[in-house]
């Protein structure tokens, strides 16, 4: 439809607790090292569109972005379907 190639460059390498109900500091700690690169570095490309269902603290996007940047991505753009506010 868009003719934009879709690739799954990320894999979750360890189980994490649900982010729901965790304190801010726990959320970050929960995701550190949870994702790894699982593709061909040569195909990572310079522009990546990272899609996430819900954006609350940005920690998931941040951890995923670190992995992608370390493996060849130059620019990362983020699309989220919903924004949640911590109370």
From TrEMBL:
- Database matches in InterPro entries: ComF/GntX_DNA_util-trans (IPR051910), PRTase-like (IPR029057), PRTase_dom (IPR000836)
- Entry's family note: Belongs to the ComF/GntX family.
Task: Tell me what this protein is called.
Answer: Phosphoribosyltransferase domain-containing protein
Per the UniProt record, the source organism is marine sediment metagenome
